[in-house]
Amino acid sequence: MAYWLVKSEPFVYSFERLLEEKRVVWDGVRNYMARNYLRDMKKGDRVLFYHSREGLEVVGVCEVLQEHYPDPSADSGDWSAVDLGPVIALPRPVPLKQIKTTPELQNIGQVRMGRLSVMPLTGEEYEKILELAREGSESQ
Question: Which long-range contacts (CB under 8 A, 24 or more apart) does 31-37 make?
């Protein structure tokens, strides 16, 4: 299994909406590196869902339901989409500020290449973000 992080502005598509709809076509990616990462995703891979521009935090976990196929929103070009489905909302969102100050997360794309909308994570990075989401949530 591989691990990923995808970003969406919550006013465009939120994790809450994914929880309601149960499945989304992750399309509209127009960066070649991010497109190639979409093509590397396999069914069952785990994906962290990050709210960008508003919130700036990891808010949930989803999984790849359908591996890449031609992006239905593309008028031209060689673009890809995948289908994602929700797994669980995090018990506590993990803000970008916390990610940036966590030593184990200094190499993730969100810190190094903040504009990239799809990026790989190591298993250790994925688990560390889940650990941060659990910290303090027991008392809530």
Answer: 31/116, 31/117, 33/116, 34/116, 34/117, 34/118, 34/119, 35/78, 35/79, 35/80, 35/118, 37/4, 37/118, 37/119, 37/120
Mean pLDDT across 11-38? 97
Residue at 105: amino acid letter: L
User: What is the token pair recorded at 75?
Assistant: 């008028």
Strand order in the sheet with 57-70: 24-26, 80-95, 57-70, 46-51, 3-8, 118-121
Return the half-sphere exposure (C-beta side, CA atoms, 13 A cut-off) of residue 53: 11
| Global pTM value | 0.94
